[in-house]
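Deliverable D2.4 — example input (structure tokens):
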């Protein structure tokens, strides 16, 4: 199969960790015998002469590059932040069409593999209809849990779910939400993400702490996630303020960057936790293995999720997780032997962290269980789904051609 992936959330030379879970899926699917993959990863256009720091990274990314053995194309599309979201998919479609047509002429695309229902999925389905190529659309979380609440976006999401040749959900909970939006249950396949078992495996806690320059002893909590309200870092900080009196040497390290940094820094000072809570910024993906291995427990206090990779990556390192019972998280933390589910409330989070910090965990068993779901296994499942879709399409086209011939000779 020649598979063209369409995903704006994808690593690039300016941000190698951007959407790394999408890269893992695409790369492993492309490595399977008989498959070839290329990627369209559109980026917003921004004038070079406007020196705004948050946009500089995208400006410097080339129009085409090689990422981990994959050819990745970066067409630029027009986007006005906070204004043009309802038109984003159409802008993507129009600006990416020449690139996709050029690829199709020399490479003959068998199917499009789109990640996120909106805007990427809608743009990809429009491209697929233009080229008569089937489109598989993967839902990942925010695109289904949040975007349908926007009045102008919801109809476009429903249209995409209806017109995609096949649909992928990363969790059963997400599939249920998609059905609620009108998607055909029979064409939705649940394919949870995998884990990079070579990267995420246990490191002795003492060695990990030494490598990171962390305290050699005492309870340590790690929270990984963008600094935005929905990730619940505020609740984690307030919960730590509650339980610190019972864990005097307790440390909380928050890994991530985002719009809430200034607010969270002020909250840390307000709670008198400057020696306890540390905002470490965004860390390289390869470094997370050490952070999870160093931690007594990790936490994710999100308001919504699809299939959060940081949960499965923490477990793969043998570290139990305290997380909210939203989205696909209960499907990952299906037993109290691997982690604890809490409500997105301060008292519930505090209680869960206290329990997790005092419980005896079988970290080896946690790691073995989590690392069994590899990206190779994910790729094998997807290959079967994609091939079945192409075979079904070929059969349908053959039957249609036969009907046309029958009508012709009946004249």
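Example output (designed residues):
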């Amino acid at each position: 199969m020649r598979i063209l992936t369409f995903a704006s959330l994808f690593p690039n030379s300016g941000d190698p960790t951007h959407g790394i879970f999408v890269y893992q899926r695409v790369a492993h699917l492309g490595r399977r015998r008989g498959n070839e993959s290329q990627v369209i990863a559109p980026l917003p256009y921004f004038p070079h002469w406007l020196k705004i720091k948050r946009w500089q990274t995208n400006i410097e990314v080339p129009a085409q590059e090689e990422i981990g053995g994959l050819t990745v194309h970066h067409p630029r599309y027009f986007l006005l932040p906070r204004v043009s979201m309802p038109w984003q998919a159409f802008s993507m479609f129009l600006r990416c069409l020449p690139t996709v047509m050029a690829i199709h002429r020399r490479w003959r695309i068998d199917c499009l593999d789109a990640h996120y229902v909106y805007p990427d999925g809608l743009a990809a389905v429009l491209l697929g209809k233009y080229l008569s190529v089937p489109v598989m659309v993967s839902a990942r979380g925010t695109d289904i849990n949040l975007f349908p609440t926007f009045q102008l976006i919801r109809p476009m999401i429903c249209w995409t779910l209806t017109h995609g040749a096949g649909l992928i959900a990363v969790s059963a909970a997400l599939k249920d939400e998609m059905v609620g939006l009108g998607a055909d249950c029979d064409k939705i396949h649940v394919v949870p993400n995998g884990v990079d078992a070579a990267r995420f495996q246990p490191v002795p806690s003492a060695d990990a702490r030494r490598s990171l320059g962390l305290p050699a002893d005492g309870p340590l909590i790690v929270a990984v996630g963008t600094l935005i309200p929905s990730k619940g870092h505020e609740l984690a900080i307030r919960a730590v303020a509650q339980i610190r009196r019972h864990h005097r040497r307790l440390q909380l390290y928050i890994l991530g960057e985002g719009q809430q940094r200034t607010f969270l820094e002020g909250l840390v000072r307000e709670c008198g936790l400057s020696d306890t809570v540390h905002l470490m910024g965004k860390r390289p993906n390869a470094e997370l293995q050490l952070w999870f291995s160093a931690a007594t427990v990790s936490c994710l206090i999100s308001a919504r999720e699809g299939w959060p990779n940081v949960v499965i990556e923490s477990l793969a390192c043998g570290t139990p997780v305290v997380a909210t019972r939203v989205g696909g998280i209960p499907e990952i933390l299906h037993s109290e032997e691997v982690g604890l589910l809490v409500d997105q409330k301060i008292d519930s989070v505090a209680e869960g962290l206290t329990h997790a910090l005092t419980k005896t965990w079988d970290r080896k068993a946690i790691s073995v269980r989590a690392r069994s779901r590899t990206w190779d296994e994910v790729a094998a499942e997807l290959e079967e789904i994609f091939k079945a879709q192409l075979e079904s399409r070929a059969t349908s086209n053959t039957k249609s051609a036969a009907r046309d011939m029958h009508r012709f000779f009946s004249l």
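Residues 220 and 251 are 5 Å apart (CA to CA).
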